[in-house]
Amino acid sequence: MKWFMGFALLLLLTLAGPAFMATTSDVRLGSAWYAADRSSAGLAPAAATTPEAVVQIYAARAFSWRGLFAVHTWVATKRRDATGYTVHEVTGWARPALSSVSAVPDRRWFEATPVVLADLRGARAERAIEDIETELPLYPFARDYRIWPGPNSNTFTAWLIRRVPALNVALPSTAIGKDFIGRALVARVPSGSGYQLSLYGVLGVTLAREEGLELNLFGLVWGIDPFALAIKLPGIGRLSFRGGLEPSAETPAGPPSGRT
Fold first, then answer.
1. Which residues contact residue 150 at a Cβ distance below 8 angstroms, ignoring those fewer than 6 apart?
2. At what angle do helices 122-135 and 153-163 cross, to 10 degrees?
3. HSE-up of 111 (CA within 13 Å, CB side)?
4. In sequence order, which ranges of 22-119 are alpha helices (DSSP H)?
């Protein structure tokens, strides 16, 4: 009986966050993908009036029921004096899964408005772009996609951040797939401020200054972030006692510090 009560409590705690997200405007259930809004959210500087190089990393709630649990992440780059952006991301319908195409960098992810996780400009962005373009052909899962536990869009973003020193961004705990590190058991976390132990993204633990302490159970993350006085819950993400929930998909982010 005790094991059953323990399992029931764990299940309740696991589903409480996604159930809460179903009541918010961040997740659109029942929307048709072909009719969903993919317009710009107004977060990227206009290429025509921004001569400097730009690198931005975005996250938005995943489409339909997936958004109850996770976000989708991608990377946008613009070289100096370029007239448009290149978006680098992994999707389940693309062949290969990894694509780098000219596109609107800050477009809504099927109605979900993104937030900016990182924003690099000028010389720092130029160096990052050189590193990004060098690393892209080396991504080991370019032709592979699994929604769970990875490799997926968040696996790619986390991998690229680890390989590009200028990025060092702590991805949201709701970026399911970020902890998929292939056959390796230990890896540096994307923020570069600690390490993680992970078994194919299904089970693992992270300890880092930026990410805090994260426990990964079947891809879902529970954690504490002592520097932000925050806890991390499946579906919800980081809940800070200083500033409430992590930035809503409805709230444009300011210049990020690397912490999400």
1. 141, 176, 177, 178, 179, 180, 200, 201
2. 120
3. 15
4. none
Burial 225-249 (b: 16+ CB within 10 A, else e): beebebbbbbbbbbbeeeeebbbeb
Is cis: bond before 165, omega within 30 of 0?
Answer: no
- Written as tens digits, the pLDDT of the chain (260 aa) is 666 666 566 667 677 888 888 888 788 787 788 888 999 999 999 999 999 999 999 999 999 999 999 999 999 999 999 999 999 999 999 999 999 999 999 999 999 999 999 999 999 999 999 999 999 999 999 999 999 999 999 999 999 999 999 999 999 999 999 999 999 999 999 999 999 999 999 999 999 999 999 999 999 999 999 988 999 999 999 998 865 556 543 333 333 333 33
- 21: helix, strand or coil: helix
Rounded CA-CA distance 130/138 in Å is: 14
For residue 27, which phi and psi values (nearest 5 degrees)? -115, 125
Q: How is residue 89 written in tokens?
A: 């991301």
Q: Whole-angstrom Cα distance, residue 67 to residue 18? A: 8
Structure tokens at 30: 């029942």
Predicted TM-score (pTM) of the model is 0.90
